[in-house]
Amino acid sequence: MTLSIAHLGPRGTYTEQAAIFYVNSLIKKTGIAATLCPYPSIAQSLQAVAVGYTQLAVVPVENSIEGSVTMTMDTLWQLDNLRIQLALVMPIVHTLISCASGLDSIKTVYSHPQALAQCQGWLERFLPTVKLIPTNSTTEPLQYLESDNTAAVITSSRGAQLYNLPILASGINDYPENCTRFWVVSQSQTEADYHISSADASHTSLAFTVPSNMPGALVKPLQVFAQLNINLSRIESRPTKRSLGEYLFFIDLEADTTSAQMQSALEQLTTYTEVIKIFGSYNVLPISPLEL
Amino acid sequence: MTLSIAHLGPRGTYTEQAAIFYVNSLIKKTGIAATLCPYPSIAQSLQAVAVGYTQLAVVPVENSIEGSVTMTMDTLWQLDNLRIQLALVMPIVHTLISCASGLDSIKTVYSHPQALAQCQGWLERFLPTVKLIPTNSTTEPLQYLESDNTAAVITSSRGAQLYNLPILASGINDYPENCTRFWVVSQSQTEADYHISSADASHTSLAFTVPSNMPGALVKPLQVFAQLNINLSRIESRPTKRSLGEYLFFIDLEADTTSAQMQSALEQLTTYTEVIKIFGSYNVLPISPLEL
């Protein structure tokens, strides 16, 4: 059996790096081999799983500096048949890659908007006059470098290695504690035969809408969790896309859906929510810098 | 007296359109004239006010489809000395502008990531094979059109008019109910002598961090508002940028800070929050499509 895993491409993205870590852990723990399938967007990676082109997708969820990856949240809500199997937390170290002879000759810096934002202080200090150009991924613009000596790309050192391109500066992110959380996602009916952790799930993710816009509409569902002593590790609002001021709430909880507390919480929650979708219970695996 | 107003440029952006509406309302209601100063980013528009280059800035806050403009929230929290004077809600109608002879010959579509995302369904249907290139604003890429007949830009019809460029398709946003909320922002110590509404403020915006990561840490501040019957019209979490899982909460409330309820809420809130910043009380002015 060989699994296929969708991820944001082209080769060398941080998402691919997280997917490779997962693939290596999987074969070590379970003997199951997996191949990687790069897709041009996060939405297309998740759609690939939803329609069964691949068994899994690895997608970024949030970065410690730039926050939520909204495309992941919105697509997960829309697709309706996906389940989170595992979370990975990976340290992010950005490098500046260019065929320029030095920083002085750089005129344009390309990267994903999240990476540009995570290095904005460094860019203002060392390259204050360059043009910043957002791209679909951190590796997509690497193709421009060989033909343009005034261009640079912010990406991972793995990107430089893969495409055999020179690194001009390393560790250029403004905050050293920069990390990104990823989810490993399957179809919801899939039996989890590729779990790499045998422990009980530590987290559950779900999303809901509240029935009406009145004082306390959001407090009530949150009180349910507080009273049952379930810690909320994250809350994120997203527009319902129906009208301005109507939101979905994405919530991560520190509990397994099968626990008695969570069962009771989910039962009470039906009273205070309109639509509720449970994206699954899972463990969180931190990736050490040495494992990359 | 002539006010200067910073906004995201170059000329023809939706933010400029909102700023023009504000300038026209201001002169009609108060006789105060204002000039517009385009800046290359939202952060730079807000910084211009913070250091006194301009008296006001108009910045986008959230779109009904794509959600929060995180650069606005993060910069407002960082700058510390800004106050919201007014909110504007503007309907958004995207058009496709190009010098191509028809849709068939288009190979590349440029626009701000929010605009690309708001038209993704239309793009998949009518231009499924084109390359989508994100840009810093909806008007920045208009410069490419005259020299490249295979390029198109998603922007406002005003952008087409201003730069005298042909419209290939109108109303291409996936959801007709597409609107964006903007804030008019000044320095916090500024006397509000350019209010265009005399009514009591209907909304207050604030942000806070909670002291510790434990069950109920967020529920307590929200309960304060619910018990005082103050409606929460929006909650948005943003990373503190210290470590993954630590958040700021941005909250919009339907009350004026000077009301007895809000005074009581703010007093109670100090017990449950770590740092709290109040960005001001203001009215919300909807812009009708006929006024654009």
UniProtKB/TrEMBL annotation, chains A, B:
Source organism (scientific name): Amazonocrinis nigriterrae CENA67
Keyword Phosphoprotein among record annotations: no
Class of the enzyme per the UniProt entry, highest EC level: lyase
Keywords: Amino-acid biosynthesis, Aromatic amino acid biosynthesis, Lyase, Phenylalanine biosynthesis
CDD domains: ACT_CM-PDT, PBP2_PDT_1
Protein name in the entry: Prephenate dehydratase
Reactions accelerated catalytically: prephenate + H(+) = 3-phenylpyruvate + CO2 + H2O
SUPFAM superfamilies membership: ACT-like, Periplasmic binding protein-like II
GO BP field: L-phenylalanine biosynthetic process
